[in-house]
Amino acid sequence: MAFIRLCRALKHSSRRLPQNVTPKNLLPCSAVMRLQHFRDASLSSEYAVAEDSYPTRIGNSEPLPRFDPVIWTNKDIPTSGPLTTEQLNEYEQKGYLVIEKLFTEEELEPVLTEVHRTMKEIEDGIPEGEDPTITDTNFFSTEPSTKTLRSIFAPHQHMRSIMNLSRNKKLISRVQQILADDVYIHQSRINFHQAFIGTGHNWHNDFEIFHSEDGMPRMRALSGVVMLSKNTAQNGSLMVVPGSHHEFVPSPQPTPPDQLGQSSKAKIVYGAPNESVFTELADKYGIDYCTGDVGSLLLFDVNLLHGNHSNLSPWHRINYFSVYNALSNKLMKPYSAPWDMRPEHMGSRDPNWVKPIEPSDTL
């Protein structure tokens, strides 16, 4: 019950954005961008805000050009690393890369032990009749109208084995090679796509959500997915539209006030692309399944369209997701949402966590 008590005890508090944010590291690569200053009374903090170069949720649905690179460079930070030229080219072209069995099953044993223990603790602790979802103070959600766990958010802040995995140098070195910056975790989660009952996530790109709902200014971020079970087409592995990351696909619908509970519980509606636009992109680029064995690593660009279908198979699928954001790409005021910030476990702003990750050998 320790995890349950922790989730209920933690309260989301207003936090100021870091004061060392400057126009140099926030303005997108567009000549038409201009600097504005926004005064947010509820946060009592002044922000440097760039005019939006990726407008979304204002009725527009046609793809827009991407201003940002996919493979970043930084003259102050060496960009050499374990990824080969061929792997970097594949990532740049497709927007994703699967590295088979980067971690051994023996290395992941402590992770799997803690994940299964926490999963049982949460499911056993849910009172009859409750249908928990993500809120300001609740870190997990279940499949609709069940006690079957769907996601745990921010496990890198609560679970020792996940904390170690998220900063392991085999992972961080590859992330930094692509983003060419110090990185921190913007959001993390364990996704449980449980046998027979796991529901899918409909098509979306993470940047559209992080940009509109969290205020992530640029596409200098990516997801690192460690496969904690075998990922197959049958058990609902991630599907991606390879190459779609070269275009920004806005969502036409405005963000509703109750978006957090809706999007974490069931189908993503606000943040999903227009179906006819998506069909054109799928016809243009195709759809890939991201499959792999236990210990494989999937890296994918923050702007890549992805989703997955329900798990009708008898095999569970469990993955650990961590969204790594460049330190120079810290969150600002949300670009298209009726709030000042989402809870810390959805979009990190806490200076205790928004700081460079020091790579470690520990697992």
Structure in words:
By secondary structure, the protein is an alpha+beta fold. Helix 3 packs across helix 4. The strands form four sheets. The chain has a seven-stranded antiparallel β-sheet. A four-stranded antiparallel β-sheet has the order 8-14-10-12, covered by helices on one side. It has a two-stranded antiparallel ribbon with strand order 1-2. The two termini are about 25 Å apart. The N terminus is likely disordered.
* Biggest beta-sheet profile: 7 strands, antiparallel
H and E order: HEEEHEHEEHHEEHEEEHHEEEE
How far from one another are the termini? 24 Å
**Total helical segments:** 8
Give me the Rg, rounded. Answer: 19 Å
Look at the structure and give the mean pLDDT. 85
- Number of DSSP E strands: 15
Global shape = globular
Return the structural class. Answer: alpha+beta
Strand arrangement, major sheet: 4-13-9-15-7-6-5
Query: Which strand-content bin applies to the residues?
Result: 15-25%
Unreliable sequence segments: 1-49
Give the % helix: 10-25%
